[in-house]
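Case study B.
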Amino acid sequence: MACDRKGHGMSNTPIDRIAAGTPQGVAKRVRGLSDRAIAWIFIAPTIFLLLAVNIFPLIWTIRLSFTNFRVNRPNRDVEWVGLRNYERILNDSDIWSTMQATAHFLFWTIAIQVLIGFTIAYLINKKFRGNDLWTTIIVFPMMLSPAVVGNFWTFLYQPQIGLFNYVVAFFTGADPASFSMIGDVHLAPWAIVIADTWMWTPFVMLICLAGLRSIPDSIYEAAECDRASKWRQFWTITIPMVLPFLMLAVLFRGIENFKMFDLVVQLTGGGPGNTTTLTSIDLKREAFEKWRTGYSSAYAVVLFVTVFGLASIYVKALNKVKER
Amino acid sequence: MTGFIGGLFRFRRGPWEMLATILIALGVFMLMQPFVMVLYTYSFIVTLIGTVMFIIVSHFPE
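Model:
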């Protein structure tokens, strides 16, 4: 660099040109600041936004969860009720059944999506003609709005005219009008699992595909030289190297499905009865239909702690897998 | 097992994180199981203890 000994010399590097263009007043002020202070100035807006958008609402929600505040009656005196909201939530059998409905939805959507998504990614990863076209076609459901997907799956599930019932009838020989996926208490939880799987399996497939394409061919070639069978290559090379990607997909889908709302509301509205009422739907009803703000804040805190705890152990497991 | 208990007494991260993980997993299972209501009632406190413990012990030395 063409600078003099004090570092004030002129040169033609872009940094020096920008420095030369800085107004004298500003340059003087900035020169008086330490690197640490300048770093703080740069990250301060982000920290401020984070505090305003994430941390403050969280702390405010925790505070409200100990009160009987109702947002539709802002002028009423707010009473401090201690742990009463939490007691009521954790002794409410209806909320307990929404937790079970959520667990059913979470477990089966993630299990089926990972299984099908990985299988499709494994097949798409093979070199064949029209590979890219098929990838685009498979990814198509993911691009739709969940409300739209929920809406057209209600048509597919119609007992009289729905295509889904006719396909099932074709394979089982049952009468298409003899069952209703949305109206039956035993079938409705599976109806939302199928619709979500149809929509989000391509997402899992894409992540798995990224993992599969990141495996160098040389590893398989070395395994071939060692005369490892395809089965052994699959279990000792493919699966361990795709595992961090799979775990990421499970994390994303788990968090997304824990707060699943629009698709299920559009598809079943939480019914029949409460069989497909997931926690997010129930929470929305408590907060914005019954207007029990304090109570629903406590409900939100319970869900937050659950998701946060699960995400913590999951990220730890993910880091361990990546270290291997 | 002896190493695990020793690690707990010496405030090492590994065993304490393991304990916190077990508590969180147990709490989530209790929250979503369809068998016993009492387990559901105490699920939140178990998950909360596990989560807070996890945050604290992740600052312990290895």
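Helices of chain B lie at 2-9, 13-32, 37-57. The remaining cases will be described in the next quarterly update.
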